[in-house]
Amino acid sequence: MFALIVLACAEDSGQPVSVNFYVLDENQHPLAQAQVEVRLQGQILACTTTDETGRGGITLPISGRYMLRVTKKDYITSETSLEIKAAVEAVDVVLSHIGLSKQEVTVQGRSSDPVTEESSIPSTLAPKQAAQVPSRPATLTDALPLVPGVVRAADGTIGIAGYAENHSTLLINSVDVTDPSTGAFGLSVPIDTVETINVTEMPYLAQYGKFIAGVVAAETRRGGDKWAFSLNDPLPEFRIRSGHLVGVRDMSPRLNFGGPLIANRLFVSEGTEYLLHKQAVRTLPFPANETQFKAINSFTQVDAVLSSTHTLTASFHDSPHSLRYAGLDFFNPQPVTPNADFHESTATVIDRMSLGGGVLQSTLANTRVTTGIQPQDTAEMLLSPLGNRGNYFSQQSRQATRFVWIENWTPRTLHFAGDHILQLGSVLSYSEDEGRLRARSVQIRDGDGRTRQRVDFTGGQPFALSDYAPAVYAQDHWMLNSHFALDLGVRFEEQTITLTSRTAPRAGFVWTPREDKKTVVRGGAGVFYDSVPLGVYAFNSFPEQTVTSFDPSGGIVGGPVRYINITQEAARSGFPLVDRARRSGNFAPYSAAWHLELEREVSRSLLVRAKYLQSAAHDLIALQPQFVQGQNALVLGSSGTARTHQYELTARIGAKSQRQFFFSYVRQHARGDVNDASGYTGNFAFPVVRRGLIASLPNEIPNRFLLWGTYALPRKFQLNPHVELRNGFPYQPVNVLQQYLSIGMGSQPRFPRYFSFDLLVSKDFQITKKHAIRISIPMTNLTNHFNPLEVHSNIADPYFGEFFGNYPRRILLDFDFLN
Question: How far is Cα 425 from Cα 435, in angstroms, rounded to an integer?
């Protein structure tokens, strides 16, 4: 794609201007022998050739707007119009190998005119910086909680803008890699293979679909011109108890390498990691207090430069992984928890070529997720206010696949009534989900061990589901002048299993009110649709429940009551942008959202942004017991709603990545139906179907302060602090029958305030000219703040309302081999 780059101008100083140009490749390595020319009205005013550091100096007779041309053999020529003035000390130019990669120009830390950017600007993470926080993220999703508005939920999933993970989408190289059955992100690609990470809450670009909360879009790294490799965390963390070595606790060696298979033509990049995590639960006795996670996570990418206008990229992500004792905690000891085995893979082929002065990108991809959930044994599950016993009630096996074909065309910039950057595209997706669930009886007991309710299950039936999801979209970034631009777009999509067609109009704007363009106002509004996971439509094949209720003496006071599984027909609504068939399962969850933000570049070292976001979601999938036409039923319908309001204040402090910090404060209100159907149709179902309740959403954080970054010291020392202060997660009190209790107008019960000050200290030791060793000391919860892990939430529990469990201060030693 081609970027129009216009930089701020200043009044003519009338004095000669000296400027240093630095030419780099995609990996930020200096490029020597690059030719730099500065032209005015077609005439060369000055030229230079860069040295070994990539630097070339030029003196011009006067400030003004010039044409900059940078060339080097086997690299794409960069031609850019820019304003050169006395205040500009350096211009960075990034040249890409022959292909279609984007060129970048940086003047005083600004890479482009804000008017050329989209109206819903993403939060961008630099993977190299993110990988150096004290938690040492191993995968893409591990790094996401560094983004404002993104949190790691108590169950390990990702929450965006207050919503659960399955309401957002994860794109790797423009391909949706979420589980077709559940919408979960799964085990994402190794972080060392990622080039860029962008997180956007309700983006207004019509190319994005299948979400109502946010989009995580990552691009992976291509192999470089020279072979390079790195080995991170090769040494295990041993478990030491009472001064004795007791096995391995954690292990996450990560091997990365890449380079040219054929010079300037064929490149390969590989990232492989082995992950072993034994997470100790502090509220249970050793050795029966650990979950065990094992994974092999591999991502391979091959890039071919077929010609100066045609490239081909193929990649394969493979991640078999297992989780033993899933959901282990004080109330669910090891015998009660299930084991889970997953195998996720995605194969992608991307073809890019010049067409009509623009770029056509064609993508073919296949995602496959195999899931197996098994209990520890065959005993009945016993639920109690004091803690659960027996074995997990459900087992399932499932295989879900998705095939997708994407065409995206960006024609040449059109010039009428301003400049128009268009994007036209189509998506054809086909998904399948097949498997079977089985369930055993569950007893619900009171605090004295007496059975108060018994839930028996039928055998269930195998299911085989399929779904076509075509979509077309068009969007226009219309730059009316040098200060104002509009994003206008519309997306038409269908999901055949839902029997619905949907229209999603979106619009946004970018305005720079001042000539220096250091102040930017953005805003917009749009309609977004969730993709309904195929697992929702497997519900009719789930085992059906028969519930019997008992009094404290053991006498039957209700039932047995048989609940049949019913998928409801969505009620007619006044929302005009959804066309539904009159049949059961015609669901189309959607949200209408808008935002407004103000950005100001205070100085080269300080960029601040204030943002307000509001969203209203409707027709969310919910599951509730109801009485339907004289029959008790568990009804899967679209009665769920949610509303969110979010304020964000963010700042980037520091111009250089070696000394740069990111600060954010998020004020959030997220309230809606908490009985989301995914709690029963997802991977780890809870056996009790709870009645509807409007409360704070599980991922709502009313206040969150976050500070993290990098500070380089002399002698190759480096400090990476991470400080987080926030409200605790909400929780819902339940009664002896495990049903949610309404709290009325009272305050939402929450965990206590969370605070953690983490720090990573590292030093590089140069072994040879090209190789170095990095010794790191990650330290977590340095203040030893009490951050409770669990709460007694059942009102029949004599300890109701008490919090317990904590991960204390922790200091480790890490080792990396760098090239």
Answer: 33
Residue 398 has a CB neighbour count (10 Å cut-off) of 22
User: What phi and psi values does residue 548 have, to the nearest 5 degrees?
Assistant: -120, 130
**pLDDT value of residue 131:** 86
**Radius of gyration of the chain from Cα atoms?**
28
- Tell me: the pLDDT tens digits for 562-596? 999 999 988 777 789 999 988 899 999 999 999 99
Q: Angle CA(79)–CA(81)–CA(84) in degrees, nearest 5?
A: 120
Q: What average pLDDT is seen over the chain?
A: 87
Pairwise CA distance, residues 9 & 85, whole Å: 8
Read off the pLDDT band of 43 (50, 70, 90): low
Whole-prediction pTM:
0.85
Strand partners, 664: 650, 706
Give the number of other Cβ atoms within 10 Å of residue 361's Cβ.
Answer: 20
Tokens of 545: 């429940």
Q: How far apart are the first and last CA of the chain?
A: 31
Closest CA to 162 of 526, 588, 702: 702
* Exposed / middle / buried, residue 243 (Cβ in 10 Å: 0-12, 13-18, 19+): exposed
Helix and strand totals (H; E) in the chain: 3, 50
E strands in 325-462: 339-355, 358-374, 381-383, 394-410, 414-415, 419-439, 442-445, 451-457
Q: Comparing 653 with 16, which gets the higher pLDDT?
A: 653
User: Residue 678: what are its φ and ψ, rounded to 5°?
Assistant: -65, -20
807: number of Cβ within 10 Å? 16
**Exposure letters 413-444 (e unless 16+ CB within 10 A, then b):** eeeeeebbbbbbbebebbbbbbbbbbbbbbbb
Residue 340 has pLDDT above 70, yes or no: yes
Residue 145 sits at the vertex; the CA angle it makes with 140 and 147, to the nearest 5 degrees, is 95
d(CA 685, CA 394): 8
Q: What is the helix (H) or strand (E) element at residue 679, kind and residue range?
A: helix 678-681
Please say if the pLDDT value at position 624 is more than 60.
yes
Q: pLDDT > 90: what percent of the chain? A: 61
| Residue with more model confidence, 71 or 357 | 71
Cα–Cα distance measured from residue 438 to residue 430, given in angstroms and rounded to the nearest whole number: 27
Work out the widest C-alpha separation in the chain, in whole angstroms: 99
Q: What is the DSSP letter of 379?
A: S
What pLDDT does 27 receive? 65
Element (H, E) at 435: strand 419-439
Which pLDDT tens digit goes with each residue over 639-691? 899 999 999 999 999 888 788 999 999 999 999 998 888 889 989 999 999 98
Residue appearing with tokens 């030029």: 58
